[in-house]
Amino acid sequence: MKYSIEKVTTLIGARRYGNTEAQVSWLLTDSRSLCFPEETLFFALKTQRNDGHRYIQDLYNRGVRQFVVEQVPEAYETLYPQANFLRVPHTLAALQRLAERHRDEFSLPIVGITGSNGKTMVKEWLYQLLLPSQRIVRSPRSYNSQIGVPLSVWLLNEQTEVGIFEAGISQPGEMMALRDIIQPTIGVLTSLGAAHQENFRSMEEKCMEKLELMHDTEAMVYCSDNDIVSRCIRRMNYKGEKISWSTCDQQAAFYVKSVENSHITYIWKEEENCFDIPFIDEASIEDCITCAAVALRLGLTPGDLADRMPKLEPVAMRLEVKEGQRGCILINDSYNSDINSLDIALDFMNRRNSQLSTVNSQLGKRTLILSDMFQSGLSPEKLYAQVSELAVKRGITKFIGIGAQLTAQADKIQIADKQFFADVNHFLGSDAFTGLRDEMILLKGARPFGFDQITEQLEQKVHETILEVNLNAVVENLNFYRSFMKPETKMVCMIKADAYGAGAVEIAKTLQDHRVDYLAVAVADEGVTLRKAGITANIMIMNPEMTAFKTMFDYDLEPEVYSFRLLDALIKAARKEGITGWPVHIKLDTGMHRLGFDPEQDMDELIDRLTHQQAVIPRSVFSHFVGSDSDDFDNFSTLQFKRFEMGSQKLQAAFSHKILRHIDNSAGIEHFPDRQLDMCRLGLGLYGIDSRDNRILHTVSTLKTTILQMHQVPKSETVGYSRKGKLTRDSVIAAIPIGYADGLNRRLGNRHCYCLVNGQKAEYVGNICMDVALIDVTDIPCQEGDQVEIFGEHLPVTVLSDVLGTIPYEVLTGISNRVKRVYFQD
Description:
By secondary structure, the chain is an alpha/beta fold. The chain is built from 29 helices and 41 strands. It has 5 domains: about 5-90, MurE/MurF, N-terminal domain (Udp-n-acetylmuramoylalanyl-d-glutamate--2,6- Diaminopimelate Ligase, Chain: A, domain 1, 3-Layer(aba) Sandwich); about 105-310, UDP-N-acetylmuramoyl-L-alanine:D-glutamate ligase (3-Layer(aba) Sandwich), CATH 3.40.1190.10; about 325-460, Mur ligase, C-terminal domain (Protein-Tyrosine Phosphatase, Chain A); about 470-685, TIM Barrel (Alpha-Beta Barrel), CATH 3.20.20; about 700-825, Lyase, Ornithine Decarboxylase, Chain A, domain 1 (Beta Barrel), CATH 2.40.37.10. The strands form 8 sheets. The chain has a 9-stranded mixed β-sheet with strand order 9-10-8-11-12-13-14-15-16. Strands 30-29-28-27-26-25-24-31 form an 8-stranded parallel β-sheet. Strands 17-18-22-19-20-21 form a 6-stranded mixed β-sheet, with helices on both faces. The longest helix has 20 residues, at about 635-655. The protein starts with a strand and ends with a strand.
């Protein structure tokens, strides 16, 4: 749908500056995602860490002419003669109000989904269940925030028959705005868990906040087996239809009579029916039951459920980046195919361009492999013209279409290098497939087309053990620690040791996208890798080598300086290169006694040497707490801070420019908020582990492998080298392709620790070998090829570090480089 700029002005109650006539189709809140400038309305949002008003000049130069702002730029008539500025008190409120007024245009079933876990699963599986018979608009990915929800609702159009939207909250008072935007007719509450619990006084308070979404709905779906949920629903005095599901209450609207493996028998409206699902884990079963109740309420029949439930496919809530064969890089989104998710995937491709190019410097073409799109509500001519426009705008240079519709609409694809195939098999047997080489490839396919066959044949198969890295979790951890900090306090993110094993380049790209102030690595070579990958953020070198000064100058890397010998050598090298004012970071030793200047004895001489030269200039001064992770060291931490204050203030007094001071690390950010000063350093916390108590925040790295082979081994036999694997019963032993050469510590063997197979604990049996480990799967339903989790989302890395008597750092950084990293974002 399009709105005139006059109508938008009225809908959001803005005052308009400018007289240009325009139509608005696209809403933009992130300048990096611009695609159609001529029909884009940019909301200059203000956050604790950023201000969208800073990007007006850049966006205007790129063709944007419509802006919603809180302050109109000075001399706007001269600087931006073709622009309209809609001034409002709060740009976020204006975005939400516009989406709310857009929602008012539609009278149709809208499903609003909230909860701690399972929101995206329920949304995507509902989409799969309803898609064969209805045209659906749903939240892209996990667009469930105060910004994401209005952008999702804006996607409603004249062809929509059902809307499905997620609503996520992190603190009290947020749900009311989301409720007004979504205006659901059916509310869904998925499972209630501990996510964001730190912002709520109790689980009841969080549940009541989530139930705000249901306030005016016609019906709500929830599990009545949860006492907290049932109690809160009674408190809210809900007037609509309560569709509770239960495994124990026969009076529930949707009574689950039995669950036998993946076969579910239920009673709905006094009739017994059943369906099968292709999952066996408890969370998936609960989410499928929720979907069944919602689908029945929306008009599907028990027969529809019985037919469609077994066809549900796992939800890949991620865009995966993988190395492919013949020098290709794959961005795998071969799970759905619609115009909105295509735009998001193309945007992801654009943002990852510099990083992907470093994996293969020969990358030339950007290739899109796309299937037919179903249930768009548009004519094929109009739909694929839009696809073509998106692809061209996002820089696609090669197009491969798969399906009868795309083949028929080949002339609508305005890309010179294009080919079309009836199905995946024809493509795989063609020269077009074998000719893919040194290309960045986005795979975007509707489920019936079986794009997993393309992925299987294109993916580089080096090792069946992979480390999955969740980029969204990195951002969530970053924002968790930022929530403790003042908006003006800067952030240094530690990505040394290849970002604690997660892969420095991709982590750095993500952090740069989220505008951290500094990245920190150990040595200059790590910094060079980042620069060659297109990282432009400030980079601090924590352990500079004197042989690398020229490298640091060439690649704009800022060294730590901790001794007079290092300082003198750096000054000499800078003078030789004709360099002045090179930023350095002065390290003070306040009690660690590792590296650094003595704040009591060295300051006068340090200041004298710094002020009598022009080659280098102190950008920051810092120190390390010895024990900010433990209350036991608080007195010593106080002494350290006193020493740092004395030394850093003396250094600042000698210079007229601002010298940034920082001493808080991850634990200190949380434990010593009064000592955050100008900047803080985030290390282990960024990777999802609270160093104060070792609790898991948001898991970044998950180490996975697969079962290679299974053996029936009688109890009279032993397993592995030196016959260390002794058995007490007839057992089933599985071999997995991971060993100490991959970073799996040998001390975990001989039943000292376990991994997870289909969610169940499988102990390591016998000695762990260089490339293979053996596990006991006697009581676990599994087969060769099944996935095994070594640590990660369901098995915290702290379980391993506790067994080993070490810290999580050692486990994370010990993962070998031969283990393939796979990056994804939800």
